[in-house]
Amino acid sequence: MWKYLLLSIYVFISFIKADNFECPSETIRPANSFYCYSFNSQLLDFSGANSMCDLQNGTLAYIDSAFTNDVVASKARNLSWDQYWIGATVVKQTMNDATVRIWTWVGTDRYLKYSDWGINEPNPNNKYAVVQTMDFTWKSKSCSENRPFVCSIPIKINLCDDGWTHFNETNSCYKVFYNKNWDDAELVCRAENAHLASIHNENENNFVVDLAKTGIIMEINNTTWIGLHTLSSNTGDVSSYTWTDGSSLDYSNWGVNQPDKGGEACVQLFSDEITYKPFFVKQWNNEACNSVLRNFVCKKKSNLIQK
Q1: Alpha carbon separation from 11 to 5, 151, 170 (Å, rounded)
Q2: What share of the chain is helix, strand, coil (3-state, %, to 5)?
Q3: Which CATH fold topology does 165-301 show?
């Protein structure tokens, strides 16, 4: 099971843009690792050390390769440690009516796919593992010995750039900007590698409203530009409207008698109630493209690259 889960994680991670991993301060991340590693000089037994790792949202170190073992052990050697706890531990399982000891990673059912035991190790009387910085090999120990320890903490993935908000349903990022006409708003979005927001279902419409709203009853121009517009002179023709990001027009939420034929070719979203049409909240209205509205919402794909 874990083999396939780790493969899935690898595929997921490989589709993340390289700059969007985040580790806690004072930790290290070996290249291509899914974990950040913290180094803790406090001398604790295995159980106490793992409890401290839990407070860091991790476990005692998971070591998945010789490369990771070398990187972590080199750092520990530089700290003048001689041995340190990692997360390898023994569990007992019944197989064919016999009880066997199996080395796993603490807190999981993952067997050790990689190990680097020293000569005559592991000792069958011991249930926990340390790494020796002298030669980076592993040695089994009893739980009661006090040692420094290394924790592994799953990497945090930044799905959106700073200031942008992720919406899981669309795997897209959104950000509110202010005080532009429609054309200038689209230019601002494009400078951010985005477009004015396209909206494809009620949930996304509500999400954009929640981002842009103030909670105050507004005048007509205190509304929100979205990415819908028409190049047709017949602005009342719903079928002529398109999204600037090229996505399909598969959802709409027009207000009553909208769009109208007044020559207004761009679309605003009523993210707040307005004084003369309070019932229009969350609905759409076509508006003159040169009107300067209170805000607009840009949308772009997240840093999880879809292939």
Answers
A1: 10, 24, 20
A2: 20, 35, 45
A3: Mannose-Binding Protein A; Chain A (3.10.100)
